Amino acid sequence: MNTNIRISDFKLGDFIEGFFIIKSMNIKTSSNNKNFIDFNLVDKTGEINAKLWDSNKDDEKKYSEGKLVKVRGNVSEWQGKLQLKIIKIRPANDEDNLVIDDYVPSAPEKTEIMYEKILDYIREINNKDIHNIVSYIFKESKEKLMFYPAAKSNHHAILGGLLYHILTMLRTAEKLCEIYTFLDKNLLFGGVILHDIAKLEEMDSNELGIVSSYTSEGELLGHIIQGINKIEKVSEKLNTDKEITTLLQHMILSHHYEPEFGSPKRPMIPEAEILHYLDVIDARMFDMKRTLESTKPKGFSDKIWTLHNRRLYKPSYQNLNEE
Amino acid sequence: MNTNIRISDFKLGDFIEGFFIIKSMNIKTSSNNKNFIDFNLVDKTGEINAKLWDSNKDDEKKYSEGKLVKVRGNVSEWQGKLQLKIIKIRPANDEDNLVIDDYVPSAPEKTEIMYEKILDYIREINNKDIHNIVSYIFKESKEKLMFYPAAKSNHHAILGGLLYHILTMLRTAEKLCEIYTFLDKNLLFGGVILHDIAKLEEMDSNELGIVSSYTSEGELLGHIIQGINKIEKVSEKLNTDKEITTLLQHMILSHHYEPEFGSPKRPMIPEAEILHYLDVIDARMFDMKRTLESTKPKGFSDKIWTLHNRRLYKPSYQNLNEE
Amino acid sequence: MNTNIRISDFKLGDFIEGFFIIKSMNIKTSSNNKNFIDFNLVDKTGEINAKLWDSNKDDEKKYSEGKLVKVRGNVSEWQGKLQLKIIKIRPANDEDNLVIDDYVPSAPEKTEIMYEKILDYIREINNKDIHNIVSYIFKESKEKLMFYPAAKSNHHAILGGLLYHILTMLRTAEKLCEIYTFLDKNLLFGGVILHDIAKLEEMDSNELGIVSSYTSEGELLGHIIQGINKIEKVSEKLNTDKEITTLLQHMILSHHYEPEFGSPKRPMIPEAEILHYLDVIDARMFDMKRTLESTKPKGFSDKIWTLHNRRLYKPSYQNLNEE
Amino acid sequence: MNTNIRISDFKLGDFIEGFFIIKSMNIKTSSNNKNFIDFNLVDKTGEINAKLWDSNKDDEKKYSEGKLVKVRGNVSEWQGKLQLKIIKIRPANDEDNLVIDDYVPSAPEKTEIMYEKILDYIREINNKDIHNIVSYIFKESKEKLMFYPAAKSNHHAILGGLLYHILTMLRTAEKLCEIYTFLDKNLLFGGVILHDIAKLEEMDSNELGIVSSYTSEGELLGHIIQGINKIEKVSEKLNTDKEITTLLQHMILSHHYEPEFGSPKRPMIPEAEILHYLDVIDARMFDMKRTLESTKPKGFSDKIWTLHNRRLYKPSYQNLNEE
Amino acid sequence: MNTNIRISDFKLGDFIEGFFIIKSMNIKTSSNNKNFIDFNLVDKTGEINAKLWDSNKDDEKKYSEGKLVKVRGNVSEWQGKLQLKIIKIRPANDEDNLVIDDYVPSAPEKTEIMYEKILDYIREINNKDIHNIVSYIFKESKEKLMFYPAAKSNHHAILGGLLYHILTMLRTAEKLCEIYTFLDKNLLFGGVILHDIAKLEEMDSNELGIVSSYTSEGELLGHIIQGINKIEKVSEKLNTDKEITTLLQHMILSHHYEPEFGSPKRPMIPEAEILHYLDVIDARMFDMKRTLESTKPKGFSDKIWTLHNRRLYKPSYQNLNEE
Amino acid sequence: MNTNIRISDFKLGDFIEGFFIIKSMNIKTSSNNKNFIDFNLVDKTGEINAKLWDSNKDDEKKYSEGKLVKVRGNVSEWQGKLQLKIIKIRPANDEDNLVIDDYVPSAPEKTEIMYEKILDYIREINNKDIHNIVSYIFKESKEKLMFYPAAKSNHHAILGGLLYHILTMLRTAEKLCEIYTFLDKNLLFGGVILHDIAKLEEMDSNELGIVSSYTSEGELLGHIIQGINKIEKVSEKLNTDKEITTLLQHMILSHHYEPEFGSPKRPMIPEAEILHYLDVIDARMFDMKRTLESTKPKGFSDKIWTLHNRRLYKPSYQNLNEE
């Protein structure tokens, strides 16, 4: 039996034991009319579906989302994906002497530090109106930013993922402004910081950065429109210049680029154009990096839904190269 | 020579004289390097392009958009469309004893009366929050509503066209609520009245209901987003229930139905679904009625751009039938 | 145990007993190599899949499609949908003292009455040719119209669904003619009555309005072409005016509007345009009404396949409003 | 001056004289307010637009569609296409001693002979029902088949073009049946002969095979539906087996293959599948052959609208090869 | 029990015994945590999924892909497809006295003979450059051509399928050249022989013509690009005329016709156009023939994925006809 | 009269004089049957169409593409675009004392220097195989790289445009590798340098960087396939590792990303993904910068074809900001 194994190391047929966080759980009835619990478990390295067959009322009360549990089980396969058949499970307790943070999938930098670094970028915005509106909204959102992911299940669906996504994009934005010097840094930094800010209202996340569902308003309007609404109200309050308000709203409106992805207007200023590419590049690099980490050299990954169902290839030569 | 002829009666080869309004005018240089004025003239019945060749500085000053002029000319053809070659032109004067309103293409009902009829519909909205927000925005917009068309060049591009479009849709909405009784009249009436209200900010219209261009904000955001912004601000001011605000915004957001036509979300409540169809039906009926009025029985119209380039057919039997 | 419970009230984990109609049944072999019967059961309120495990030859003979049965079972879940595990089942018998009509999902009005009401509309058609052809086809189809649904599994898949669909559309058509007065009532009423009439040939329905399959001709040609064929033959017989025949065929041909939904020609007369919208609106309202009936206030429905996979939202305010 | 030159040999700047047929003519007014006649002239080799400037009433009466004229003029260019400026024009007269057939663009085989050859194919159809219906319709259409083209302006828009299209497809069909021996020759030959037969009703052609316009019924229904109607009526008359009727209708219905090209059903029998490819191949080969005839070796043709705007390449090696 | 039954004759509920080839096998773990072997078995007539439940290490070693086995089992159904529950299985042995070739799904002609027939076609290519390059590549590929299929799972996924596909297309090409005499036989034959030749590098096939996977290069480039690369290198070696090389590469590049199917250029010479249709027709006829062989007269097949999910219809009249 | 004026400063109605380069010229015949020369003139700042009416044989010989001319003329307008009516024109001569380079639209850095800078990047490639192949192809192409543009008429259609495009992308690539540190610099730099290298074979450019047409091979294969061919041959010569060759070919193959834009495979390695975005961003920034340079603050540009027909907006606030 492999103990203290990480999810990304699970292989078909393994008999494992370790600590994991319950990302979600549902009580269901099997075809033989008995209850079972359908878990999604995570640790820092990945996620796996797990079944506790023939569960009883007791089990159903003992566990809940966001809790750390110790699990023993067998790794099987269902429709091409690994699955865990739970043999033994119990809640973690004080004697286990664990810090939950060690099990939460989270951004590679601390949220407090990322928050401060983004404030530094805000300080560089030297147009008063843009500075004020961005600063106001960013600071007002601090509490949620400390844990929100950038998505429910795609790229950056990790604790602190939204801050990490913003920060990486700011770093790239800064560099692109050195190449394409006619770009306006104020608008671009402002757009980067605000482009996904309404994800804080679109999704419901717990403090581990796990999103269980979308809000009603999120379903009916979506984060693009919610972000525009937020700017509209804050601009009113701060008495922001009308053109600035419209430009920031336009950047948010157009950042998905294609109408069928939610942007009824395509970018009409170069800063909005760049904002779109910063966003796509960061999402793609995140997904590709993660995918290739679990792909063997000279091998192909599974089909990745978020990448138009492409399979990725991991060259063999890189390994040689790094030696 | 046909005097006092209406534009819809022009035929190739006619030698005509009559009064028309200048919808737009541009001074251009011809291939033989002389200036000419390129007019678009309208009357109640239609629109025609007209050229004043070899114009001089004097001419260029004497005329401007929105003015009534007396024109004599020949009806020729250019790329399949009728065109007027101006032989003589002068501004209308007091002695002509004309009322400009008789020449403006305009809605079949008076704007003051349509405005009042819509107020009657608003009175029927018995949800306090919807009533207040709709009433506030509608009354606040009164001045522009008195002349704005519903579009720059498509359906309802006539003086009072926006009010007429709203009023006709309200009449149909009322009737559909008698058939589909589970529909909420409050939401539906509210949605109809607000769905295009931000066209007042999207387009610049003169007091004859002629739109020369879109506003910058209109280009960058569009009337759907501008309408949502307006509701956001007014809701804040009136302290409107959050769900009501979101539902009205959702109706505006989804009323074009397809992402590629500007609606990032499709309708999620039946009232939003119906709003979309009321809008399309009214636009289509307006365009089809106008097209068939100038089509001969048993004949086909030209291809109509706003109708997916379809040609319409006018049956012969209807004529017999009406006798 | 819940006895006499309706399908729309089933909840996961329920232990229920009640009477239902067998919509379809198939004998299958399970992975453990035993036979089981795979039922779809319906009552007035809905439909559910049900399994009778380890069935024997006796069971397989005792039941057949369209029969009323008494069932006891447990409500479980399979791939996100409720499913019934049958514990006990028997055919209904005389002592149960039941009327099958009380269990058939059916239109809210009686078919005989709907048939008469449509005849009233036909009487209003005052063009002789249209009147005769519509009247002939409608009366000729009476027998099947008494039970046919309008679809196999989408909107109006209920006993008398086709008549109900036609009647509701006629009511709306009548009202729209009051708004858009240039529409020809004869053509529009005729088009509404005939637009889906060949569904009687496209699908095979039993007398409970349950469609088991499409006919060969229905698969190879489809109800649009079959309807055109029917008009072709009846026109020949009644010596109908050629233009009238063509216009009615055109209305049927174009009523799905988009080529990819089966209409090679888009509407070229306003009555055909309106016919399309009447059809869509009635289908959508039917599906939305039914969906919202089983959705909780402030909640979202499941994704509805027939509505582009949208989820519907049920506002909370309506409830307050209705008090 | 080049006399008796053929249209396909016209070059920019030529001063030419020759005999041509008036395919169409329209009287228009130029920007300097004078009438001119806008001709399309054809001969066996091609088509060219020609202008007779400053025409008078006399000219307008003297010429009409389908007439042979003698023309002298200059070959100029307008928007990338050659155009003829007419210097002198007169109707051909008896002294010219010409046979109009020598000037009509027409199929490479005589219509009478093609008609007989197709009858031979019909004799090979040994299913009685298919034979009878195909034979009946083909013979009934003889008069029009003697001159009808297969299209207004695309492939086979030549005198006898429809017969030539059918005959070539039959020859290919015969050969494919030798390769794919499971194909049913009766159905396939029947489908080939009937697939475009209703073009005789869809278009109005004069006896030179020149189509001026579509019929009303053609616009409202199209030749696919009109062909199905024809089969419906003839089947009724001949008491044809129902399945045969449906299969022939299905073949016509599906022969454009894609819904957006007019086929609401895709082929469900192999003979319908093959029919589609026979049709496309014959149209493509016709257009490609004609295009390459006027392309220089190692050169590219203009963009061909009927070939998805492709340009064709003419290899140089073929010339060497043929020596 | 049916012994020596062929897969295409399996029916739900059958208890069968026979010899089959293991096309693929995977060891999996069931939901009750026991290992089972998931086989795909084939014989000359078809393919079926089969499960050996509760397998042990011994079983897992005894079987491997490409081996002949004797199987006894029950035919059940899973998600609408037949499946075999294995009761008894053992490897075939010498005493069974079997020839594996009798069990491999393979082309109707022997590969050696097909290879020779294609050489005959190559001899007919009388352009030296084309002849040499085609001959070189074809002969160089002989070893693999002796068993390679034309696809992993679609049309011609049989032993010798690639040769059979090429040969049938050559036969049709020959016949089409008799109809469309301006086609260049050299180019067309060359294109047919080379169009799919790089499938030998794109896929990994065992000697039974069973493809287990794509090669890395096949995934990253695809057989169209790989084929172009092959021509590039061989042309260099044979010092082929540049235009010939480009034309052959163009034919390969464009033979899928649509960009979304892998052809960035559409055909620009008629031989490339015809090549595409030869390819499609042969694939479709193969799939349709096979599908109809297991469809009952007057019945419809299942939906065929490779045919846009169409169902095929098998007419009843053919049977009568053949008597 | 404005003398020595630059094309980007032309305004409707201007009477101008200056020196320009003939980008292209065609002799045409006007509707009044006289010859005229249709020029496209360029200078460093832009391009304009110009007409020399009533030209004679002498004129036609005196001028040719790539020559510097002195022109006097009037700026008029044709279909919304400025056009020059030439009053006087003559070739530039020695006494004008001009350097043609001052009139050629060209990259902002000298080609020799850009060439050297790219060599520096090549030196950083520390994988031997990638280094050798990239170095070989880049050096072999030096002559043409000294003047080739990156396109015929879109982005970077300037002298040295291809080098400038490559160099800017390398600079951005370098910076992105600092952010996304898992990217392989060798592959990415190699891909950037080779991605468009076959444009040197796809287009024919004169030494002023003006492309008159595509080559035959360019039309039939396109620069993506031509680039892959080049790598294939050079790899053979340099005996490059097979995987490296395939990866570089894959990067070229996938760099247009969408099949309909010429990439039959989408990127399967992150370096290919980034290559695509580097390419798009550089093209977009080039076009946007140039467009905004001639747009007034608070104004919109014309619709830009290369930007999905979008109009760009130039904010007013930037101007204030820069003071």
From TrEMBL, chains A, B, C, D, E, F:
Keyword field: Hydrolase
One of the protein's GO biological processes: rRNA 3'-end processing
Residue ranges of every copy of the OB domain listed in the record: 27-91
One Pfam family hit: tRNA_anti-codon
Segments forming domain HD: 163-283
Transmembrane domains' residue ranges: none
Molecular function GO terms recorded: hydrolase activity; nucleic acid binding
Database matches in InterPro entries: HD/PDEase_dom, HD_domain, NA-bd_OB-fold, NA-bd_OB_tRNA, YhaM_exoribonuc/phosphodiest
Name of protein: 3'-5' exoribonuclease
